[in-house]
Every structure is written in C-alpha cells, then in structure tokens.
Amino acid sequence: MAKIKENKQASTEEKIKEAARKVFTQKGYAATRTRDIAEEAGLNLALLNYYFRSKEKLFEMIMKEKMQQLFGVMTHLLNDKATTLDQKVEQIVSNYIDMLMQNPDLPLFVLSEIRNNTGMFRQLQVGKLIRNSHFVKQLKERQPGLQPLHFIVSMLGMVVFPFVSKPVFQSLEVLSEDSFAEMMKQRKVLVPKWMKAMLKVK
Amino acid sequence: MAKIKENKQASTEEKIKEAARKVFTQKGYAATRTRDIAEEAGLNLALLNYYFRSKEKLFEMIMKEKMQQLFGVMTHLLNDKATTLDQKVEQIVSNYIDMLMQNPDLPLFVLSEIRNNTGMFRQLQVGKLIRNSHFVKQLKERQPGLQPLHFIVSMLGMVVFPFVSKPVFQSLEVLSEDSFAEMMKQRKVLVPKWMKAMLKVK
DNA sequence: GTCTATACAAAGATAGAC
DNA sequence: GTCTATCTTTGTATAGAC
Q: Phi and psi (nearest 5°) for B138?
C-alpha cells in the first residue's frame, strides 16, 4: 500500500504534523507553544493556521493518531483464535516493547492528556473489544479466581511502567540509556515467564 | 510534634498552598493558571504574589513536598535490617497503596513534570540510597541472576501503574471507582505473592 | 494583610503583501 | 502557498488604596 505521491521532501502539511507529533508528545498540550511547532518544522507560524484551523484542532488530530498507535498494537492479537493464552502474552509483550522503543514518550503523553480530557477515549470501542475478547475468555478459564483486569493491568504495567518511569530512574542515576535498552530486551523474555508464574499463584 | 498555633481556620498562606497542591497535581504546571489557584483558595490573585514571589516559586515548593511524599514511603523501609525481603515487599506495597489511595494524582503528576525538568531529582540522594540499601543486598542474595532494577521496576509498576492508568480504564468503561478501590485492596495481598513467585522463575 | 485596578509579557490567531 | 507584521486574548506580576 504505497503512497501514490512520494516526494523526496515531505509536503508542508506533513512537515507540520511531524513537528507537532514531536513537540506535543514531548511537552504535552499546555506546555507546547505553536511557535515551537513552527520552529521545529522550519516554517512560519501562520502556516499552522492555514493548514489546521487552530492549535486545538492540530492537537486532536495528533492525539487520535497516537491513541490508535497505542491500542492498535494489541487489539487484533486479543481475538486471535489460533493462539494460546501464553502465546498471546508473548506477542503482546514483544510487540509493545518494540513499538514503545520507537515511541518512548507515547505512554506518558497519552496518560497525561487523558487526565484532563476523559471524554477523548469514549469514541474508541476498545472497552467492549477487551471485555468480549478471546484473550479474556482464555484468562477466565485458566484462572477463574482472578479478575482479568488484575492480570491485564499487571501485564501492561510490566511493559509500560519502565517507559513512564525511565526519566526518574535516569535522574536518580541508577539507569543509563544503554542499560535501559538492554533491560527492555530482557523483558521480552522475562515478562511472559513472570506472567505464567503469576497465574499459578494461589 | 504538634503545631504551636493551631487555628480553627487555616492561615491564608496555608489556604494558598492547599489550593496549589490540588490544582497543580490535577492539571500540571503548564495547564494551571494562577487564577485557578486563587479561586480554589477563595482568595484574591494578588495574594499569591504577596506570599510566594511567583507561580514558579510556589510550584517548586509544592513539587519538593510531593517528591518527599513519594519517596518517603519507602526509603526507611529499604534499610531495615530486622525484616526479611518478603516482609519488606509486603510493607512497601501496602504502604504505597495506602498513601496513593489518599493521593491518586501524585504519580502521574510527578512523572509528567519530571519529564520536562530532569534536574529536579538530582538534589535528592535517593539513587545512592537505593543502590546501597539492605533491600538490594537481599535481592542479590535471593536471585543472583536477576538485575535488582528489574525487580524494583516490576514491583513499583504493579503498585503505581494502576493509578496512572486508571483514567484510561475508566473511560474505556471497564473499571468503576468502587471496583478500583476493591482492586487495590486485593493487590496488597496479591502483589507480594506474585513477586515471590517471580523470584523463583528461571 | 487584603483588595481593585492595571501594567506587562507571552501566545494564539489573522490580515494582507507577495 | 508562504511570508511579515499585527491584532487579540490570556495569564503573570505589580502599584496603590484601604
């Protein structure tokens, strides 16, 4: 599915979007100035309002993209009838870590922005999708005593929390950039093993 | 250590600080307007600058308080020579959950603000404190093959991530306020068990 | 110490030339 | 489509009366 027009240099519109992605995810909506975005794009401030009506409209567009990115990783895996529970966990963990290594600011960005604007998620039907998923069904079979949400939150926490807390551990000087990458690589193997062990508890 | 003056109504200075705590932790520095704080305190805007020199100074004061609160929970427990590793985990998990139930916005607040201002943590000597702790020593003895940081990040993730991701799960309509409280109560018991099981893996 | 009114600065949006 | 210059709004800080 290649683009029809594939210019060497991105279009102005795309330059703005790319700059907006970077600045918004790094600093958050409120701390971002439209001037930052224009500068990052190497363009004039007026062009932002020419292509997108306002800061808010531009933000909403980026936000939708980012939420899609964050949930898209797992939604189709959840309903794969062909895989076992353990295989699903392996795939979700591995895919998430790969994606987040490419987008380390993504989780904190989405989590912070949702705080002030809870309505933003309503449109996505992810909630129903999770509740009715094959994954949740398999979970209930394996461990009837455990609330599926406990397991899901734990699994995602194992994967996402390192990215969210990275700045803290780095400034505490207990973690370098390299050792973080190494750690996340190890987690691809460790987390699924841990989750298996957890399901046997009690 | 009771205060000498304990007036029925808080002093103006304390009213401002209390309002600032609330608004800053809910919305973050950039999204907070000094007018919000004044209004929340039921006071005039000019008083903020009378008692604290600027928005930034007021923020720094609150931020120091909040970081103290976040780390204070565990620092003394880490070096308790009288407790076993398992007991330390139980205590840290339990204390953290209790404290965070009272301050649910705290983690996301600190994590977001640190992102833009990494230097803020340098002053705290928490890094060294962790590395040299009795807790880490016990961890290394129990499971020489496992990086202590893996364990610490996992443990904190199990406890903190639910608070950070709560707004998401709530807007996905898979979690109510009541069931969240119930879930965290269960986690006081579950997380230590899980951590024990994880230490046996591999 | 507390308030009202206002100055000043920063940031978003737009007009109009090219 | 892109730019410079400018208007407008919003938010922080201060002056000065009480």
A: -65, -40
Backbone Cα Rg of chain B: 20
What is the CATH code of the structural domain delimited by A10-52? Answer: 1.10.10.60
Task: Report the candidate in A195, A163, A192 with the shortest Cα–Cα distance to residue A180.
Answer: A163
Q: Do the beta carbons of residue A161 and residue B161 sit within 8 Å? A: yes
Return the number of other C-beta atoms located less than 10 Å from residue A123's C-beta. Answer: 9
Q: How confident is the model at residue A8 (pLDDT cuts 50, 70, 90)?
A: low
Q: Which amino acid is residue A163, in one-letter code?
A: F
SS3 A106: helix
**Cα torsion through A184, A187, A189, A190, rounded to 10:** 160
A181 to chain B, any CB pair closer than 8 A? The answer is no
Neighbours of B127 (CB within 10 A): 18
Nearest-neighbour CA in chain A from B200: distance (Å): 9
Which of helix, strand or coil describes residue A31? coil
Question: What pTM, to 2 d.p., does this model score?
Answer: 0.94
- Asked if the Cβ of residue B56 lies within 7 A of any atom of strand D, the reply is yes
Where do the domains of chain A lie? 10-52, 63-200
Length of chain A: 202
Encode burial over B94-116: b for 16+ CB neighbours within 10 A, e otherwise.
Answer: bbbbebbeeebbbbbbbbbbbbe
- CA–CA dist A81, A84 (Å, integer): 8
Contact B197 A202 (CB under 8 A): no
Question: Which amino acid would we find at residue A106?
Answer: L
Contact B97, B188 (CB under 8 A): yes
Q: How far is the C-alpha of B12 from the C-alpha of B6, rounded, in Å?
A: 13
Tens digit of each residue's pLDDT (9 = 90 or more) over A156-193: 999 999 999 999 999 898 999 999 999 999 999 999 99
The sign of the CA dihedral B83, B85, B90, B94 is positive
| B56 burial type by CB count under 10 A (0-12 exposed, 13-18 middle, 19+ buried) | exposed
Lowest mean pLDDT among A14-23, A29-38, B132-141, B164-173: B164-173
Please tell me the distance from the alpha carbon of residue B32 to that of residue B25, in angstroms, as a whole number.
9
B192 CB-near residues (< 8 Å, 6+ apart): B86, B89, B90, B93
Listed as ranges, the nucleotides of chain D within 7 A of a protein C-beta are 1-5, 10-16
